[in-house]
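Researcher: We're teaching a course module on how sequence relates to structure. For the next exercise, students receive a sequence and then see the predicted structure as tokens, so they can try to spot secondary structure elements on their own. Here is the exercise chain.
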Amino acid sequence: MVTDKTNDSSRRKEPIIFIILVLVVLFFILYNMFVPGTHANNHVKALRLAQPKGQIVIYNRVRKSASRTVLEVITTLSNQNDFQMHSSIVYEHMNLSLADQTVLMNYIQSLQPPLIFEKHVHYLDFTRLGYEPPIYINIIRDPIRRFVSDYYFARFGDALKIDKVFLGSDETKNRSVNDCILGGYDECREAKAFGLGSIPYFCGQDPRCMQPSEWALEQALYNLHNRYLFVGITEHLKGSIAILEALLPNLFKGASKILKYHGGVMDVVSKSSTKGKHELTPAASKKLKEVLRLEYIFYNEAIRLFKDLKNQIKRIRP
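Model: And here is the predicted structure for the students to work with:
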């Protein structure tokens, strides 16, 4: 009888041990996927050591995240560092049909590298057409600041977009962002705000990327870690430009000086401030942060990667 009880006890422990082993394995898989300083850094090193010629860099720029300032830097650099700068003139469509994705990817592949291609567009999977993946870069901004800026930009533009046309009633146009948030209007609820945020740019072209969900967040995080050479932070723009200069010196050599001293860049900075912005009240800010909760998970992870990469470059930069 004692032996039977012992065997029963052992059999009861076996599934528990198995579950523990599975959890340990999952931990290490997730650790290697998402913790800065692991395989993502090896990916960065490999790209940085690649030959400078033949590079195709895509900047699928997020709205209202200092992208026009960065574009002015890149445009100036294209003449200075002898590479092609290509811009899409169609910005209305960021989530594309399969046919339009194919047309755009084939077009980019037809261009002569080295080059930087920029467009407001969600992540494109070039491997779907059998192409080698390009180098992806981007810049993102604090979600609340980006949301407020985009809210008023859609209504009033800025000094560079004085002809901005708002597609809505005068009542909606003149509604403050505080009233929109606290009043629970659609424009300031999660379903609408998510589709206009940063996550869809990194999640990709799947229709599910436009809907707030853990799936969309996880896909965006996966691409952030595995498909992007670098994602900078608007609130750390000088440091972001310096990192690009270190990672892609054949394209971004001299970028920090241009950002600091170039008259054209300073002009863009001064004129691209959104008109008519109102500061958020504490109550509206608290509610908006709840609405943008998935965005903040993504943003905070991007900041962690940014800081980790900044420290890594200090160690490997020649």
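Model: If you want an answer key for the exercise: The chain is about 60% helix and 10% strand. Confidence is low (pLDDT under 50) at residues 1-7, 31-40, 47-52.
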